[in-house]
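Journal club side-thread
Mid-discussion, someone asked how the predicted structure for our own chain would compare to the paper's figures. Pasting it here so we can look after the session.
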Amino acid sequence: MPPVPSNDHANEGSTHVHPSKKLAIVDGMVVVQKMTKKPATVVTVKDFSECFNASVLSLTRGFDHIILVSDTYKQDSLKSTTRSKRRHGKASVQYQVKDDTNIKHITMSRFLSHERTKADLANYLANKTLEYNRYSDKVIVVSASGLTSSNG
């Protein structure tokens, strides 16, 4: 078979159309705060993470790339001092953040009152979001506690 002649000028004057990609930046704790009224189906932290993931995907419908960010929680920060004052002297309780932690009868404000619990939840939700979207067509980047990961 004879070689096919090269036509280096075949694309001259043609326009290449590259589809534009849409990027969404989502503050994870804003999504959590919007979920303060937990559905009755939320019994465990894992259940909450599934609802969180559904909320993030609903918010970002039509986007190709999602960047999910969470604050870094430091105990000696100005934010921490402000939160402490809001509790009006009530002690915060640190909860374990694991798949089977039962949160059915705990209000989200109570659950999130301790800085360590909030930081652990941010990390947990970031990891679960990547896990749930491991095979997604969307590129998902998460950043929590200064660490960044993606599903790609």
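Post-session note: Residues 23-146 form one domain.
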